[in-house]
Amino acid sequence: MAKRHQLDPRSWESVFRRLEELVLAGSGEDAFSEVFKLLIAQLAMESEGTSGSLLGASPAETSELATKALKKAERRWPTILDGDEVSRLRPEQLHECAGVLGEVSIADSSLEVMDGVFEYLMTQSHKGAKGQYFTPRHVIEAVVRIVDPKPGEQVLDPACGSSGFLMHSISYSQRLRQSESIEDAPSVWGFDVDAKAIQVSKAMMLIAGAPPGNVTRLNSLLTPAIGESLFAMGADEHSMTIEDTVRVRHSRFSGYDAIITNPPFAGEVREPSLISAYELAHPTKRNERDILFIERCVKLLRPGGRLAIVLPTGRIGSKSSSGMREWLLRRLQIVSVLSLGRTTFQPHTSQKAEVVFGIKRERMIASRDTAQESILFMTSDRPGKDSRGATIERTSATGSSLWDRADHDLDQAVDAFRAHVTEKKIAWGEAS
Hints:
By secondary structure, the chain is of the alpha/beta class. It has 2 domains: about 10-100; about 125-425, 3-Layer(aba) Sandwich (Rossmann fold). Helices cover about 40% and strands about 10% of the residues. The protein has 16 helices and 8 strands. The chain has an 8-stranded mixed sheet with strand order 3-2-1-4-5-7-6-8. The longest helix is centred in the first third of the chain and has 18 residues, at about 60-75. The N and C termini lie far apart (about 60 Å).
C-alpha cells in the first residue's frame, strides 16, 4: 500500500506532491489541471498585493475566493487557463488544498524553484510517453551559459516544453548584470504543440515578468512554404507558423539571434505537406521529428546566429545520418559537441544524447571547405544523476540550485568552450 506523502512546507516539490495526492484521492479530475489552477489563482491574488492565500474561514468561503481569483486571472491573462477558469474540486477538497498552500508565496520563490515544481507536475502528467524528455536543469544551465544570451537578443525554443531553456536564459542574463529587470534579459520566444506545456510556459513568463504572449501553441514544423500565410488562412493553431507569430510584432524580422532547444527525439512525421517542405525529409523513408527540427532551427536563425540543440547520439556518428551531417556542416559552423552521460535523462530514458553548438553561416559552403574548421568535442563523465534518475549530490555543495548541488562536470565544459572560442578566434555571440 502506497504511503501518504509527508508534507514539508519548506519545499515546493513537497507541496505539489501533497496537492497532487489530494486531488487524485478525492476526485476523478485531472491532477495537472486542478493543481495548475490553484497556483494561477494564488498568483492572481499576489499580483494585486494581497497575501495570496486562498484559504477562507470555511469551505464555502475558500471556494468563493478561488472562483473570484480564477476569473481575475482569466481577465488579466487571457488564454492562460485555456477557458477553464472554474475549479472542479468540491469545496471541502478545495479547502484542504488551500490549507496545504498556506502562506507560501509564488512571487517570493525563485524562477528555478518554480521551474522545478512545474516541471515535476508536467513530468508526472504525460511527457515521457511522447518521446519528449525534460532536460535536467543543470544541463540547461550549462547550455545557456555557453550560448550566453544577451539583453535585447531574440532567443527561441521551438519545442519549449515548460520553458526551461527560456527561463534560465532570463535568469542567467539578469544574474550576470545583478538585475531583476526584464530589460536586462533577452526577448524569449517559446512554441510547443502541447497545450499543457504552453500553459506552464505562460505561467513561468508571468512569474519572470516577461510577456506571456511570446509563448504560443503551434506546430513549430509548419513553415510558410507549406501554404498561404496566416493572414490569408485565418489565425488558428493549425495554420500559424513561427514566422507569422513573430512578424506581428517585428515586421522586419530576419531571424533569431539564438535558438536553444531539445526537440522530441521520437515520432515519425508522415504528413506529405510537411515532408515536401524540408530538404532533409525523404518521400519514401521514415522521417523522424528531430531531423526536421534541425533544418527548421537552422532556417530560423539569422546569419551569425547561435544554435544549441540536443540530439540523440546516433545523429552525430551513425552512417545513416551522414547526409544530414553534411547538410548541416555546409550551413552551420559546428563549434563544439558535448556528449552527455547515459543517465542524464533518467528516470525517463537511458537514451544517450549530444548537444551541438554552432553558428549559422553567411552563405552555404562546399563540403571540402569545412575540413579545416576546428570542432571541440567534450564528454561529460559526471552526469549528476544515477541510473534511477535521482540527483547525485556534491559532497561539498554550497548553493541551493541544482547547478550547485548536483555532482556534475559541466562547469568544466563551459570553461573549455569559452577557452576554445577565444583561442580559435571564433565569432561566438557577436552582434549582427
